[in-house]
Amino acid sequence: MNIEEYREYCLSIKGVTESFPFDEHTLVYKIMDKMFTFAPLNPKEGRFWADTKCDTARSAELMEQYNGISFGPYSDKKYWITIYLESDVPDSLIKELINHSIEEVVKKLPKKKQEKYYATLR
């Protein structure tokens, strides 16, 4: 998956907004006004990457399986992972991890907001 495919996938998810709250070089995607993934538009050592929220236990498993998944340089290592987009991580898994990140964000919202979010999916 390249950076444009990542962007297209994020924008295809119902209720997602795109913004640049940090600077003009970092794409940020939110659901219900909460960030669930971000990606710098400047590659690191020639490689594009994205950070997503991830369950702690799952993070450890993923990092053992894939060279393209690690803890990110700019985020809380307990809740966020970095995925190198053009690596050994399959596109289907990247999409799954983006969706998992949304789930991680939504489950921490107040019940009313969770209900509102799930109602928009119907």
Describe this structure in words.
With 122 residues, this protein is α+β, with helices and mostly antiparallel strands. It has one domain (3-117): Aspartate Aminotransferase, domain 1, CATH 3.90.1150. Helices cover 38% and strands 24% of the residues. It contains 4 helices and 6 strands. It has helices at 3-12, 56-65, 91-106, 111-120, and strands at residues 16-19, 26-31, 34-40, 49-53, 69-70, 80-84. The chain has a 6-stranded antiparallel sheet, with helices on one face. The protein is globular.
Q: What composes the largest sheet?
A: 6 strands, antiparallel
Largest sheet, order of strands side by side? Answer: 1-2-3-4-6-5
Quantity of strands, as a count: 6
CATH uppermost class: Alpha Beta
CATH topology: Aspartate Aminotransferase, domain 1
Residue share in helices? 25-40%
Taken as a percent bin, the fraction of beta residues is: 15-25%
Keywords: DNA-binding
InterPro entries: YjbR, YjbR-like_sf, YjbR/MT2646/Rv2570-like
GO molecular function: DNA binding
How is the topology of this model organized?
Blueprint: H1 3-12, E1 16-19, E2 26-31, E3 34-40, E4 49-53, H2 56-65, E5 69-70, E6 80-84, H3 91-106, H4 111-120
Antiparallel strand pairs: 1-2, 2-3, 3-4, 4-6, 5-6
Short description:
With about 120 residues, the chain is α+β, with helices and mostly antiparallel strands. Helices cover about 40% and strands about 25% of the residues.
List keywords for this structure.
alpha+beta, 4 helices, Aspartate Aminotransferase, domain 1, single chain, globular
